[in-house]
């Protein structure tokens, strides 16, 4: 789990990372309290002075954690679940606990009321702010954390001003709050596991019914399990062996549920190998090759099924889990210490000649295809990947260092040719006219220096409905399609400008879509990993077609 996969189909166990961080805090916090009490007795300092020292220590750790979180790059997978990067969020709550309820007594009741309403407004408002996720971890979480802390502070002392806290004013929410942990436990099997078991995505009304079931189960377990355990005086339930048995039982249920969910989510998804996905080079052709790709031997998995005459295959045999979404960390795929991007060497690692693939996460998602192409061409493929960074020279931003470094190496003649892969700017952070001008200037600069390159058209994008269709229809995904106009409902300026300038381009639109619709499963292979990225396994099936296009365009190395 990491920020590179934020748009993936949600795993049924994805929330475990937050539980892990939470449990680590619960293990550390009692030790801190015990140590604090011990030091308080040993030092014999006044209680108020000692609490102030503790508060300063907590604040120092919180600030250090926040600075650390803001320094992390979301491209680093560890950022998502790094405990110290999350510690500051827990530190805010810890500071509030150390200050105690009396700290809020200095704020007038009316002021607490105003602050509470403002804080609730912030919590609701941030959910509608676009692009806030770009600043997570770090500043993007600050509004929610601070607002929540203010609500806790303002709700602490209950004075005669009864509307200090919205939650205290509405008895129904108090009832829900008492049972919130039960609801949290029950929502997982009812709302998450059940749809996977029955193979059906919950629409609006079924989801309402499921929520009602969650509340009923929560109320029952709260009444007949939680409350008796809390209030009983029986020595049995207080014995360690009884508590251990309960814990073991719950753990067993959790493990069984997790294994079941994972098995259901990945049922029928086979690991990928060259033997069962791409045609052997010596095989006789079962079907005549189409003139469009004369160098490709026919095969019926993934992209091959869209090109050659193949029997229908609507069952998902190869999904997003069949191959890693991005290049695994190896000695030939490492982040450059002096920069903020990766340099991955794929293909024939012993070859004298090399080509370069420059792009963002879309280029990185197709790493298996570049590896296949490199081996077919007999060259090393250098992949310079930087998320959300198109290859545009002269634009001053966080992409500049990578782009200038690649440009200089191209001019120096290190690579035989370049492949440019740019994701379409769906957020339109750069105006259309400016983006077109930037791409045109970049292409002209490369051409001026005699650099050969090819521009690859971006793949289609999908929506929320299409994203979830495959996982709920894994045995028959024939209904998982979308209109072609929706999939390509964007302006691909990088590709369009290259075509207008009569430059070399590669367009696989006819592989992704037919004349009217775009299937989400082609030849038993799930095409999309999330809203905008293709799966690595589908990218692998594009490898033979990329090789064909390179040879057709004359984009070969000096040895070929």
Task: Give the secondary structure arrangement, pairings included.
Layout lengths: L15 H28 L3 H25 L11 H17 L9 H18 L15 H14 L10 H4 L1 H8 L1 H19 L5 H28 L3 H4 L1 H27 L7 H4 L25 H5 L25 E3 L6 E6 L6 E6 L1 H5 L1 H11 L2 E6 L14 H12 L6 E4 L10 H17 L4 E4 L7 H9 L8 E3 H4 L5 H8 L4 E2 L2 H4 L4 E3 L1 E2 L2 E2 L9 H17 L8
Parallel strand pairs: 3-4, 3-5, 5-6, 6-8
Antiparallel strand pairs: 1-2, 2-4, 7-9, 10-11
CATH-level-2 architecture of the domain at 298-552: 3-Layer(aba) Sandwich
pLDDT < 50 stretches: 158-167, 245-275, 281-289
In which range does the helix fraction lie? 40-55%
Looking at CATH, the homologous superfamily of the domain at 298-552 is SGNH hydrolase
Number of strands: 11
Task: Report on the architecture of this protein.
The chain has 560 residues and is of the alpha/beta class. It has a domain at 298-552: 3-Layer(aba) Sandwich (Rossmann fold). It has helices at residues 16-43, 47-71, 83-99, 109-126, 142-155, 166-169, 171-178, 180-198, 204-231, 235-238, 240-266, 274-277, 303-307, 361-365, 367-377, 400-411, 432-448, 464-472, 484-487, 493-500, 509-512, 536-552, and strands at 333-335, 342-347, 354-359, 380-385, 418-421, 453-456, 481-483, 505-506, 517-519, 521-522, 525-526. A hairpin with a 6-residue loop joins β1 (333-335) and β2. It starts with 15 loop residues before the first helix and ends in an 8-residue tail after the last helix. Residues 158-167, 245-275 and 281-289 have low confidence and may be disordered.
């Amino acid at each position: 789990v990491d920020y590179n996969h934020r748009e993936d189909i949600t795993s049924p166990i994805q929330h475990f990372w937050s539980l892990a961080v939470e449990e680590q805090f619960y293990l550390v916090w009692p030790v801190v309290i015990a140590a604090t009490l011990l030091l308080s007795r040993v030092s014999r300092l006044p209680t108020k002075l000692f609490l102030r020292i503790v508060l300063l220590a907590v604040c120092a750790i919180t600030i250090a954690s926040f600075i650390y979180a803001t320094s992390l790059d979301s491209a680093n997978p560890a950022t998502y679940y790094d405990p110290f990067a999350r510690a500051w969020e827990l530190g805010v709550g810890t500071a509030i606990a150390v200050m105690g309820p009396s700290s809020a007594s200095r704020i007038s009741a009316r002021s607490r009321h105003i602050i509470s309403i403002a804080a609730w407004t912030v919590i609701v408002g941030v959910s509608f702010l676009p692009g806030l996720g770009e600043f997570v971890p770090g500043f993007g979480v600050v509004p929610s954390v601070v607002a929540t802390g203010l609500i806790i502070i303002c709700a602490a002392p209950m004075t005669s001003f009864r509307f200090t806290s919205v939650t205290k004013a509405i008895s129904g929410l108090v009832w829900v709050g008492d049972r919130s942990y039960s609801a949290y436990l029950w929502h997982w099997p009812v709302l998450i596991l059940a749809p996977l078991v029955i193979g059906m995505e919950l629409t609006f009304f079924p989801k309402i019914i499921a929520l009602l079931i969650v509340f009923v189960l929560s109320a029952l377990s709260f009444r007949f399990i939680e409350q008796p355990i809390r209030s009983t005086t029986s020595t049995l339930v207080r014995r360690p062996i009884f508590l251990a048995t309960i814990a073991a039982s719950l753990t067993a249920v959790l493990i069984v549920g997790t294994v079941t969910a994972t098995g259901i989510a990945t049922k029928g998804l086979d690991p990928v190998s060259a033997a069962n996905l791409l045609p052997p080079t010596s095989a006789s052709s079962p079907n005549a090759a189409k003139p469009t790709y004369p160098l490709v031997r026919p095969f019926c998995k993934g992209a091959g099924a869209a090109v050659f005459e193949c029997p229908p295959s609507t069952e998902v045999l190869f999904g997003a889990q069949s191959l890693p979404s991005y290049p695994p960390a190896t000695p030939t795929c490492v982040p450059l210490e002096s920069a903020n991007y990766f340099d991955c060497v794929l293909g024939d690692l012993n070859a004298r000649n090399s080509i370069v693939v420059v792009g963002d996460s879309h280029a990185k998602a197709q790493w298996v295809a570049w590896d296949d192409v490199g081996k077919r061409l007999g060259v090393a493929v250098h992949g310079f990947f930087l998320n959300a960074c198109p290859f545009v020279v002269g634009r001053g931003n966080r992409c500049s260092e990578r782009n200038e470094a690649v440009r200089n190496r191209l001019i120096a003649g290190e690579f035989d040719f370049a492949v440019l892969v740019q994701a379409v700017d769906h957020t339109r952070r750069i105006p259309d006219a400016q983006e077109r001008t930037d791409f045109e200037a970049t292409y002209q600069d490369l051409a001026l220096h005699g650099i050969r390159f090819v521009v690859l058209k971006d793949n289609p994008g999908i929506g929320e409905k299409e994203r979830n269709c495959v996982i709920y229809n894994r045995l028959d995904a024939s209904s998982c399609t979308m209109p072609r106009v929706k999939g390509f409902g964007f302006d691909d300026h990088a590709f369009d400008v290259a075509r207008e300038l009569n430059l070399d381009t590669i367009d696989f639109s006819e592989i992704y879509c037919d004349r009217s619709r775009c299937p989400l499963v082609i030849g038993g292979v799930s095409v999309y990993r999330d809203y905008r990225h293709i799966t690595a396994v589908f990218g692998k099936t594009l490898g033979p077609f990329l090789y064909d296009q390179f040879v057709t365009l004359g984009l070969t190395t000096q040895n070929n």
